[in-house]
Structure formats: structure tokens, C-alpha cells
Amino acid sequence: MKRLIKKLLGIMCFDRKFLVKNNYLKPSELSNQESIEQLSLLENKILMQSLLVNKDIPSLNIYDDIKKLELEFTLKKQQIILKNILK
């Protein structure tokens, strides 16, 4: 049996109107316990969309990772993906 494993890249994009409108949302208890901010959105019935990408990108965990990400996002393929996300 073939297993499908997906990795959440953790890139979330919001427009200014959304942020202003939903600034009042308090973190849910579960969101605080699990340290997952997205749970507050889901518990307030705010739907999120995902985009399937075929290539992993470097993680941003320490300061030195910034350069790797900056390089990655200058690539044309990543610019196309970003454009699709921001539609």
C-alpha cells in the first residue's frame, strides 16, 4: 500500500482587509495549548485554502536560514507559485 505524506510549509498569506476585520479574534484554548495559530481561525469558522506544491522549500528555523530562503524565492518557479497563492 502506497502512503501519501504531505508536509505543511507554513506560509500563510492574508490581505490587509482580512487582518483588520479579524484582528479581534482571541487565540483559542486549543490553539494556545498546541501552539498552532491556525486553530483559532478554524475554530472561528474561517476557512483556509491550501496549494499543493511539488517541491519542498528550505525551512526557516534559525537566522542563517534567511539567506537560503531569499535565494529560493528569487527563482522563477517560486515566483509563479507565489503568484498563484496571492490570486
Strand segment count:
0
Specify the biggest β-sheet.
Answer: none
Task: Sketch the topology as an H/E string, one letter per element.
Answer: HHHHH
Number of helices: 5
Distance between termini? 36 Å
Radius of gyration: 16 Å
Whole-number tally of structural domains: 2
Low-pLDDT residue spans: none
* Mean pLDDT over the residues: 79
SS class: mainly alpha
Helix content: 40-55%
Which descriptor suits the 3D outline? globular
* Proportion of residues in extended strands: under 5%
Characterize the structure shown.
- With 87 residues, the chain is mainly α.
- It folds into two domains: 9-49, no CATH class; 51-87, no CATH class.
- Helices cover 41% and strands 0% of the residues.
- It has helices at residues 16-21, 29-34, 38-43, 65-72, 76-85.
- The chain is globular, with a radius of gyration of 16 Å.
- It starts with 15 loop residues before the first helix and ends with a helix.
